[in-house]
C-alpha cells in the first residue's frame, strides 16, 4: 500500500472516530458529571447538590456542541459534494479510452510514425507561479501545432495568472489549463481551486469551497475543548482535594480536551492568519520568494513598434504551421470604418486581445486586499455569515470580469509601472528610465546652479557663460 492509498483510507476513518469521540465526551459530561456528580449524590459524597452548576454546564456545552456538529457536517458535505475540483479536459477522457499497452518487447522506433506535438504533449508539470521557460530561453511547449481548448476562459478576463511566456499554467496529469490559484493534489489526482491542504480530519480537500467552514469548525472546536477542559480540570482537582477516587473517564476527558484543544487552537490561529493575508497553505510555503506572472490586458496596444519594458502576447493564439504548409490568403478589402477605427462592434471571444506579461516582486501577493477585505472575501460580507456555516465564501463566485479573484493594489502598481491604461480608461504615464537624460538633466541643473551662485557672489556669471559658449563654438568648428 502506497502513501496515497493510506491517506485516503485514513481520511475515511478519522471522521467516524471524531464523531464517536464527541459522543463519548458527551456521555461523560451529561451522565458522569452533571447527573451522577452534581445532581444525584452518593452516600459518600462530601459536597452538596449543585443543580444550577449542572444546568449552566449543560446549556453552554450543548450550544458549543451544536455549532461544532453543524459546522463539521457542513464541512463534510462540501468535501464530498463540492470539493472545488477543476473539470478534466476532453483530452484526459480520450486518453483514458485508449487501450493500455501490454507488457512485451519495446516497439521499433523506426516503424513508428512521428507524431506532431500539441499543447498537451509535454511531461513536465509547472506548479503554481512557476515559469515555463527552458534553460535556453525557449518555451516549455516546443513545436506547437494546435492549441488545446479552454483558453477562452482566460483571455476573456483582463488579468490571469500565466507562465513567463504568457500562457496559462498547464497540468500534464489532468490535461487542462489551471485557473488562477489552482494546485494539483496528488492524493485525489485532481486540480483543485485555491487548494489549502489535504486534511484527513475532514475526509478530503480543504479548498475555496470549504475554507470558511473549516475555519468555523476549528474555531468552535477550540472553544468546545477549552470549555470541557476547564470544568473537567475543576472537578478533577475537587476530587483530589477530597481524597476521593478519580474516575478514569474523567481523566480521559481531560486528556482529550488538552490534546484536541491545543491542536484546534493551532489550526484556528494558522487558518485565520492565512485568511487575513488572503493566502493558502500551499501558497504560503513559498510566500517570501514566489514570483507570480500575470497576463494583464492592454486596452489600447501600442502599434508604433516603440520598445516597452514588458513582453506581450495576443490571443487567440494561432497554430504554428510551417511556412510551406500555409495556404494563400485571399485579399481582404479594408473599409474606411476599419481604417478610422470607428467600428462599434463589441469584442467577442475571438477578438484579438493583447496582454502584457508582468511579474510581481518576490513575496508580493497580487490578491492581498487588506486584512478586513481579505477576511470578508472568505467569511462573508455580513456579520452572521462569520458564525453560521450556510453560504459559500464570496471568493467562490469567479463572476468578475477583471479576474477570477479580486485583485489588490499590487496589480494597479504593476500597471502604473508598465504604463498600461487603467481600468477606467485613463492613461498612466510610463516612467522614463534613460540614464543619458538623467545625466544631461544633472549637468544642466548643476551648471545653472553654479551660474546662479556666481551671479550672486561676484557678478561674473554672464562672462563665464559667454566664455563657455565661445569654447563650444570653437570646438565645433575644429579650431
What does this structure look like?
The protein is of the alpha+beta class. The chain has a 4-stranded antiparallel sheet, covered by helices on one side. The radius of gyration is 34 Å and the shape is elongated.
Outline of this structure?
By secondary structure, this protein is an alpha+beta fold. The protein is 43% helix and 9% strand. The chain has helices at residues 3-39, 51-81, 90-97, 152-155, 211-241, 248-276, 281-284, 336-339, 371-379, 409-418, 435-457, 461-476; strands at residues 159-162, 169-171, 176-178, 182-185, 190-193, 197-199, 204-206, 293-297, 311-315, 353-359.
Descriptive terms for the model:
alpha+beta, 479 residues, four-stranded antiparallel beta sheet, disordered C terminus, two-stranded antiparallel ribbon
Mean pLDDT over the full residue set: 77
Order of helices and strands: HHHHEEEEEEEHHHEEHEHHHH
Secondary structural class: alpha+beta
Roughly what fraction of the amino acids lie in strands?
5-15%
Main beta-sheet strand count, sense and barrel state: 4 strands, antiparallel
Q: Output the radius of gyration.
A: 34 Å
Low-pLDDT parts are: 109-146, 329-348, 426-465, 472-479
Write out the strand line-up for the largest beta sheet, numbering strands in chain order: 1-8-10-9
Using the alpha-carbon principal axes, give the shape: elongated
Got a strand count? 10
Helix fraction by DSSP (H/I, runs of at least 4): 40-55%
Q: How many distinct helices?
A: 12
Distance between the termini: 92 Å
Amino acid at each position: 500500500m502506497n502513501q496515497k492509498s493510506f491517506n485516503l483510507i485514513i481520511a475515511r476513518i478519522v471522521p467516524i472516530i471524531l464523531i464517536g469521540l464527541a459522543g463519548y465526551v458527551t456521555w461523560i459530561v451529561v451522565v458522569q458529571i452533571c447527573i451522577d456528580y452534581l445532581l444525584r449524590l452518593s452516600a459518600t459524597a462530601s459536597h452538596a447538590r449543585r443543580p444550577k452548576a449542572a444546568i449552566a454546564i449543560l446549556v453552554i456545552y450543548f450550544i458549543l456542541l451544536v455549532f461544532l456538529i453543524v459546522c463539521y457536517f457542513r464541512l463534510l458535505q462540501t468535501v464530498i459534494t463540492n470539493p472545488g475540483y477543476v473539470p478534466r479536459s476532453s483530452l484526459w477522457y480520450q486518453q483514458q479510452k485508449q487501450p493500455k499497452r501490454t507488457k512485451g518487447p519495446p516497439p521499433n522506433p523506426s516503424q513508428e510514425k512521428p507524431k506532431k506535438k500539441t499543447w498537451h504533449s509535454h511531461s513536465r508539470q509547472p506548479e503554481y507561479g512557476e515559469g515555463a521557460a527552458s534553460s535556453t530561453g525557449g518555451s516549455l511547449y516546443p513545436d506547437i501545432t494546435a492549441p488545446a481548448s479552454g483558453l477562452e476562459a482566460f483571455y476573456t478576463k483582463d488579468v490571469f495568472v500565466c507562465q513567463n511566456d504568457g500562457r496559462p499554467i498547464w497540468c500534464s496529469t489532468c490535461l487542462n489549463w489551471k485557473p488562477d490559484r489552482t494546485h494539483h493534489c496528488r492524493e485525489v489526482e485532481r486540480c483543485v481551486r485555491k487548494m489549502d491542504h489535504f486534511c484527513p480530519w475532514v475526509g478530503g480537500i480543504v479548498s475555496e469551497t470549504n475554507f470558511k467552514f473549516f475555519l468555523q469548525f476549528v474555531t468552535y472546536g477550540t472553544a468546545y475543548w477549552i470549555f470541557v477542559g476547564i470544568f473537567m480540570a475543576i472537578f478533577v482537582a475537587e476530587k483530589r482535594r477530597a481524597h476521593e477516587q478519580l474516575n478514569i473517564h474523567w481523566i480521559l476527558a481531560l486528556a482529550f480536551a488538552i490534546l484536541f484543544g491545543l491542536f484546534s487552537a493551532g489550526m484556528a490561529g494558522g487558518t485565520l492568519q492565512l485568511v487575513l493575508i488572503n493566502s493558502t497553505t500551499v501558497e504560503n510555503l513559498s510566500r517570501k520568494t514566489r514570483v507570480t506572472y500575470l497576463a494583464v490586458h492592454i486596452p489600447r496596444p501600442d502599434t508604433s513598434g516603440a520598445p516597452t519594458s514588458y513582453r506581450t502576447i495576443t490571443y487567440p493564439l494561432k497554430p504554428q504551421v510551417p511556412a510551406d504548409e500555409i495556404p494563400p490568403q485571399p485579399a481582404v478589402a479594408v473599409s474606411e470604418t476599419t481604417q478610422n477605427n470607428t467600428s462599434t462592434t463589441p469584442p467577442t471571444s475571438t477578438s484579438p486581445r493583447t496582454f502584457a506579461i508582468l511579474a510581481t516582486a518576490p513575496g508580493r501577493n497580487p490578491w492581498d486586499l487588506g486584512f478586513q477585505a481579505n477576511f470578508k472575501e472568505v467569511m462573508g460580507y455580513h456579520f452572521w455569515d462569520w458564525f453560521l456555516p450556510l453560504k459559500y465564501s464570496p471568493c467562490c463566485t469567479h463572476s468578475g470580469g477583471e479576474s477570477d479573484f479580486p485583485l489588490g493594489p499590487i496589480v494597479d502598481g504593476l500597471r502604473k509601472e508598465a504604463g498600461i491604461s487603467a481600468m477606467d480608461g485613463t492613461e498612466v504615464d510610463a516612467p522614463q528610465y534613460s540614464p543619458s537624460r538623467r545625466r544631461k538633466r544633472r549637468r544642466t541643473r548643476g551648471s545653472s546652479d553654479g551660474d546662479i551662485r556666481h551671479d550672486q557672489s561676484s557678478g561674473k556669471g554672464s562672462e563665464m557663460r559667454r566664455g563657455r559658449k565661445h569654447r563650444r563654438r570653437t570646438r565645433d568648428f575644429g579650431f
